[in-house]
Specification:
It contains 11 helices and 14 strands. By secondary structure, it is of the alpha/beta class. The protein folds into 2 domains: 139 residues, Nitrogenase molybdenum iron protein domain (Rossmann fold), CATH 3.40.50.1980; 112 residues, Rossmann fold (3-Layer(aba) Sandwich). Strand 1 and strand 2 form a beta hairpin. The termini are far apart.
């Protein structure tokens, strides 16, 4: 028997009543599946699925989020594949959709993320655990003050410099923790110049740990380029992972704001 679901891309997906061979194409969704107690049902993950640490050791690696190994996936014979519009690649997803039940999320804000968690609970018959995670995230996020305290630029890449701008989940997280994104009027992940950065006069530059692994040496780089704003290394997972990892994000944001206030 199977059930019909509509994913966040509005695709209709027929899923087994009890999925037993699940592949996750997204690191944050892999962590969610483990937190839902589905360890025994997971058969495949990506090489970037770093949480929990044992995921890559115990499960078959099916490639990366944008480089699927279709032969490996076929050998696993999945009865449910979980993917993400932004993190995966269209051609690969379309190829999988032709053969396997493939449920996609499309997340722009916290509400979308919470809806995704609840939906994965429904897909995998773990509604109670999923709803508990949603409630926990909501209660933790409620502790955040959205009062704007800092004007920031959030860097995700170097050479060329790229930032998280408007219409991104990262921008929504910045709003939640009371930070004004100086590039919110731009779209998605634009390239920016040092001249543009100086013109918008941010109070602080946030240098993310992913996808580009910014380090302490890069903080000095901006100073040498004549940028007067303070620089801060931040944990990119806290700003862009959209599953159960969000339970950790609120505490991280509170601690970050306290650090900024010093």
């Amino acid at each position: 028997m199977s059930r019909q679901f509509i994913d966040q891309m509005q695709y209709s997906v027929n899923v087994s009543d009890k999925p037993m061979r699940i592949i996750s194409l997204v690191p944050s969704m892999t962590e969610l599946l483990f937190d839902l107690g589905l360890e025994d049902q997971i058969v495949g993950v990506t090489r970037y699925c770093v949480h929990p640490e044992r995921a890559r050791k115990e499960k078959t690696i099916i490639g990366g989020p944008k480089t699927f190994d279709f032969e490996v996936i076929d050998a696993l014979q999945p009865d449910l594949i979980l993917g993400n519009k932004e993190e995966n690649y269209k051609e690969g997803i379309e190829q999988l959709q032709q053969k396997y039940p493939t449920w996609l999320c499309d997340i722009h804000n916290l509400d979308d993320a919470l809806a995704m968690i609840a939906s994965v609970g429904q897909l995998t018959n773990t509604e109670d655990k999923a709803n508990a995670i949603v409630s926990d995230i909501k209660s933790r996020m409620a502790l955040l003050s959205s009062e704007k305290t800092l004007r920031v630029a959030y860097f995700i890449w170097r050479k060329p410099y790229r930032v998280a701008a408007g219409n991104t989940f990262i921008n929504e997280m910045l709003k939640l923790c009371g930070m004004e994104n100086v590039f919110a009027d731009l779209n998605r992940y634009p390239e920016v110049t040092i001249e543009q950065l100086k013109a918008v006069e941010p109070d602080m530059l946030l240098l993310s740990s992913e996808p580009y692994p910014f380090k302490e040496k890069h903080c000095q780089e901006f100073t040498e380029l004549g940028v007067s704003a303070r620089t801060q290394l931040v944990d990119g997972e806290m700003f862009c992972w959209t599953g159960s990892h969000l339970r950790l994000a609120a505490d991280y944001f509170i601690a970050l704001r306290e650090e900024f206030a010093q």
